[in-house]
Amino acid sequence: MNAPVPPIAPETDAPVMRTTCPYCGVGCGVLARPDGAGGTSVAGDPDHPANFGRLCSKGSALGETLGLATRLLHPMARGGDGRMARVEWDTAIGQIAQAFGQTIERHGPDAVAFYLSGQLLTEDYYAANKLAKGFLGTANVDTNSRLCMASSVAGHRRAFGSDTVPGVYADLDEADLVVLVGSNAAWCHPILFRRLEAARAGRGTKLVVIDPRRTATGDEADLFLPVNPGKDTVLFAGLLAWLADHEALDHAYIDAHTSGFAQALASARAMAPDIEQIARETGIPTADLVEFYTLFTTHERAVTCYSQGVNQSAQGTDKVNAILNVHLATGRIGRPGMGPFSLTGQPNAMGGREVGGLANQLAAHMTFTPADIDRVRRFWRAPRMAAREGLKAVEMFEAVAAGRIKALWIMGTNPAVSLPQAASAARALGSLDFLVVSENVATNDTVSCRPHLVLPALAWGEKDGTVTNSERRISRQRAFLPAPGEARADWWAMAQVGRRLGFDEAFAWRSAADVFREHAALSGFENDGSRDFDLGGLASLDDAAFDLLAPVQWPVRSEGDTADKRFFANGRFFTPDRRARFVAPMAARLATEVGTDVPFILNTGRIRDQWHTMTRTGLSPRLGAHLPVPFVEIHPSDAAQLGAEDGALVALQSAHGSAVLEARLSAGQKRGALFAPIHWSNATSSNARINDLVAAVTDPVSGQPESKAMPVRAAVLPVRFRGFILSRAAVADLPALWWAKVAVEGGEGYLIATDQEPDEWRHHAAAILGTRDYAEYVDAPGGMYRAAAFDDAGALVGAVFLSPGGARASWDGLKARLAARTLSSTGRRHLLSGRGDDRAAASGPLVCACFAVSTSQIDAALAAEPGADVQRLGQMLRAGTNCGSCVPELRKLIQRRAPADLATVGVLA
Ligand SMILES: Nc1nc2c(c(=O)[nH]1)N[C@H]1C(S)=C(S)[C@@H](COP(=O)(O)OP(=O)(O)OC[C@H]3O[C@@H](n4cnc5c(=O)[nH]c(N)nc54)[C@H](O)[C@@H]3O)O[C@H]1N2
Ligand SMILES: Nc1nc2c(c(=O)[nH]1)N[C@H]1C(S)=C(S)[C@@H](COP(=O)(O)OP(=O)(O)OC[C@H]3O[C@@H](n4cnc5c(=O)[nH]c(N)nc54)[C@H](O)[C@@H]3O)O[C@H]1N2
Ligand code: SF4
Ligand SMILES: [Mo]
Questions:
Q1: pTM, entire model
Q2: Residue located nearest, by CA, to atom 2 of ligand 2
Q3: Spacing, Cα 145 to ligand 2 middle (Å)
Q4: Residues 765-809: pLDDT tens digits?
Q5: I need a labelling partner for 857 at 20 to 30 A (CA). Which of 14, 36, 141, 647 fits?
């Protein structure tokens, strides 16, 4: 158990635990205080150097996601009848050891594999790699980071000889120019973005955003460059040539510390011969190109942050190197306020890279060279070292489908949703001889793929260990809740399997601290500065020191190492000749081109208040209120051509699958481009799993899939009725044509579409609302159906509402009623009339998730005070004053109302 952390709120007796947010790679410190009755309050840790007390909407809502209702609490095994039944942990461990052991005996070590996640703790990740690469003899260990950071890893290794993120967050405070490439940081790294906004307010930092669509982040930019999908390489090749032509190169740095410059410049010139050609290819107006190039030329303190718009593409590694090239050519790397900066997505994307979680890496940032293999073998005293790289995620699932991989252990990821060609991936899982899934939740699309065994893993608040954020800072995740049911740490389960296979000594860890010390020791083993990753100074922490470990950035080469944590200021890299390498960019082409039958290009990504496949954020009513349904963003002119009004259902179809999504008209889209979120799965919607459409095409260097440019066609899906269902309990087997599930206060909500007549819905409603008393209103000719059920106290417990037409009806009034738990008799009477409680009914979409402030409240405030700015809105409604994630949207609402010259607003402090 953890030693109690020094008291943080001395005025109360409640134990407060310092821990780390389990969502994005910003890695914010969290103070968690369980109330002893199943609830937990959370707040930002004012002393954590990633967030200094702030949390975004997702972090703030963590307390709402800790319930046990959806959790997997016991190991379950599939019996002969196909049903899952409880088994003892001991039996489960025996089954895995036997299945993996026998498969290796019969088919060799490469017939088994592990598919892991950047949401595992470093200790879990370390255990998996040691087991597979040292003791089972296979490097078939890959992770969802392949879908996330692999191109950055590959780009770093090509340029630096190591997978090193050179900079630190403080560089954003000290920069004069920040360029965000393929990053919607306002939504995906919100607290880091707020830090950047604060720096802009203080120092006037210029912000350039490069993205094919205008996002909440793009809205905040001084200069927004709407690059054509995939054309970042051309844009940065053009910048390299421009720097050369405008005498902005650092020749001394290039000569002393790099190689390959002349060739890279020649290739860049060939790719981007003149500004008109660059404008044509990138779709960026010439004047804006010149402005960007000039800004970069004249601002030495420049940081270029990049994320999935760069990584997730068929030429992602070249995009990364095109960015690294311009920083190397100007010597702007490793010094305060300058450098390239890969923003990592998951809370422990970096930790996974540190332990060698990718199939082409070995532990502690070593690779599959004979010397490294031998070093790791000696350290582990490994009987069966993997001798070569293993299969990368997409190849791994191809090998599963082809029957070459026969036993697979999935841990902390939901590949049936997140892999490209998700339906094929799910089918492949069903064909395995042995599939084990370690999960927090009892059901999701992967758990539905008929695993032989599912294992209950500890979740956030229960697990204990370390994670590393985007700036290489290691923070503790500490347990503040007891392990529920029979849930166990992932590292523990793997260590048990290792021991069952006969490797007692190698897997004798008693705690996360034991695993961490071994990991730290390996990083320092025969290192002497030859490898970037070094935690040698933490290798002998005792248990108490591990429990109290304060956030610390690597490298920590010796105890108390306080050297500057930036890399490469000294110009010494980790290549054999210690010089950085320029990489000549290759022609930038999309993997698959649009055509007449597939005229749209589908881009995919994230929304502000949901996390990936929604197994956790999907439980929070507050987070569900911002963007409740799966949608597709479409340019108004394209929508007009399709005949799609805002809110209509649109069917997308690709060569691989289809989805039905609600149209959101947005002038921020390019013509011919669509954007859809990745979050919905078959568990949360009838037909919105976006990766069913996305082809499994990968970058040739990194193996990362192209997730952001899939050719599709689109058509309006005519439906006769739209409506919703509200229910205290989840509803199984919805009889609707289309549905999406939304967490609502007091129960579950479903937004639905149907072609069935009101009369048919009378039967469905009876089944959904059960035997309880309910009132009905049927207007068959008018196409209206409404039913509402009440409990003995008269409170609303369920409702089914349908109305004719293709647009979604507002459900805010009814939602408020379900939450209320009591209802006046007038309220009940009004309910079926659809009039509802006016205040609640008029609330409209939620903008500020922290204080539940809706669009209509904001509109009302702006009507009352037309000159109100963001700060004033904060005073009036509290909107935007907590996490600030909604500030860009507030600004937009203000701009929409205000004449252009009134639209300037201050930045929140
Ligand atoms: N709210 C929220 N935050 C998250 C997550 C979440 O699920 N929800 N997930 C976390 C994880 S794991 C990750 S990896 C990060 C991802 O963080 P981001 O990378 O910021 O998020 P995405 O929405 O995937 O994609 C970023 C942008 O790339 C743009 N893009 C698409 N194609 C191109 C292109 O060719 N060039 C350029 N320049 N841009 C392009 C997209 O339009 C999109 O706006 O977010 C993390 N934070
Ligand atoms: N088209 C398209 N596809 C994408 C992306 C995209 O932008 N576009 N983005 C890609 C990226 S960057 C990412 S990171 C992936 C994310 O995709 P996934 O990793 O598949 O998404 P999650 O929902 O985070 O899945 C994590 C699962 O692990 C469980 N879990 C959480 N913590 C633990 C734990 O400690 N132990 C165990 N055993 N289980 C745990 C959760 O309940 C959940 O089911 O999606 C990728 N796929
Ligand atoms: S920015 Fe938000 S999601 Fe990311 S670590 Fe901080 S609180 Fe968590
Ligand atoms: Mo990610």
A1: 0.95
A2: 707
A3: 9
A4: 989 988 677 888 888 888 899 999 988 888 889 999 999 988 888
A5: 647
